[in-house]
C-alpha cells in the first residue's frame, strides 16, 4: 500500500499551534527528536516515545490477529524490476530513492510500498479457493524521497513504519473484506480516542498518474461505494486522490491547527493481481484471478503517533502512556515500599515509575507526573497496611483498597484498551 499524501490543507509549512504542536511536545516530553547527522525526515525515538510506538504496534498486531490476519516479514529492498512490474517505477518513481548499483545489471531499490512483496508471497506457491480470503499483514518499513522543504516532525518523514495488510480474495468476498477493514479501523479509533473528520472516496483525476484501465477502476469503485452505502457512512469524493492502481476510501483526521491528513485507508485493486499474474485454483478446478484489498488500520505509525500526541496533549490513554502508574513515596522511609510496588507492577506488565523524595517536594512530584493516568502516594500508613488510594489524572481520588486489587484492576483496564480512566 502506498501511503497517502496529506490533503492540501495539511501543508507542513504551516506549524500547529505551539500549545499542541507534536514536534514541540515530542521534544519536551522526551518522545522523539532529530539530529542533523542522521538527517532530515529521519526522527529517532527516545525511550518514552518508543513505549508509545511499541504499544500502538502491539495493539494493532493483536487486533489484526483476532480478525484473522497472518503476519509476515519482507525485505525493505527489492530489485528495480519488481517495481517496474508493479507499476511503481512508472507511476511513483519521483517519490522513490535512486536505485543502488550492486553490479552489472543489478539495481536494488528501497521499497516505496509493501504490496509488491506481498504479491510475491501470495504467488510463492499454488493457492486454493479454500485458503481465501487470505489476509496478510505486516508492520513494515518503507521509504519516500521527500524533499527537505516538506518534511515536518513525524507527519512527513523519509523512513516510514507502515501498518499495512493485503487481503487476497474472490470477487464475491471483496465487499465483505472492505467492510471488515472499516470495522477494524473504527475499533482502533475508539481505543485511541481518535475521531475521523470525514470519509473520502478517492478517485483518479486527469493526467498520466493513473493506470489506464477504466473498466478496472469502475469495478473497484463500485465495491467501495456499495460498502459505504451499506454501512450508512457519509463520504465526499476526492478526484485526483486515488492510488495509481485503484480507488480507495481514506479516513481523514484533523489536527488542532485545522490541518487535514489521511490516517487510514482501504483500497480495492484489480491491477496488481493482473500484473503479477496471481491465480488461485477454484472449486471448478480452473485458475482464477484474486482481488487484492489493501488496507491500513492506523497507516503510518509516525503520523498516527503525531496525531495522538496532539489529540491528547501527551496525556495518552492508559494503555499507551509511557508511565501508567507514578509511585510517590512521602519520604526516604517509604523508598523500599515504593520499589516493591513498582516490582509488582512489572509482574503485571504495568509501567510504573518511582518519583522519590530526592526529586523534590510532593507537590513538585505530583506536577511532574501530571500526564501519568494514575498516581499513588505512599506514606507510613500505606507502607504499613498495604492499601493504596489511587489518584486519577482527571482529579478523581479513589478510596483505599488492598494493593493487589488495585493493581489487578489497573492491569485489566490497560488490557481492555479503553480511553476511560475508570
Explain the layout of strands and helices.
Layout: H1 22-28, E1 32-33, E2 44-45, H2 47-66, E3 70-71, E4 77-79, H3 80-86, H4 88-91, E5 100-103, E6 106-110, H5 115-122, E7 134-143, E8 159-169, H6 174-192, E9 198-203, H7 214-231, E10 235-239, E11 248-254, E12 260-269, H8 271-275, E13 280-281, E14 287-288, E15 291-296, H9 301-312, E16 325-329, H10 335-347, E17 352-354, H11 362-368, E18 374-378, H12 380-385, E19 387-388, E20 390-392, E21 401-402, H13 403-415
Parallel strand pairs: 3-7, 9-10, 16-17, 16-18
Antiparallel strand pairs: 1-2, 4-6, 5-6, 7-8, 8-15, 9-11, 11-12, 12-15, 13-14, 18-20, 19-21
Care to describe what's here?
It is a single chain. With 422 residues, this protein is α+β, with helices and mostly antiparallel strands. It is 33% helix and 23% strand. It has 13 helices and 21 strands. The strands form 6 sheets. An 8-stranded mixed sheet has the order 3-7-8-15-12-11-9-10, with helices on both faces. A 4-stranded mixed sheet has the order 17-16-18-20, with helices on both faces. The chain starts with 21 loop residues before the first helix and ends in a 7-residue tail after the last helix.
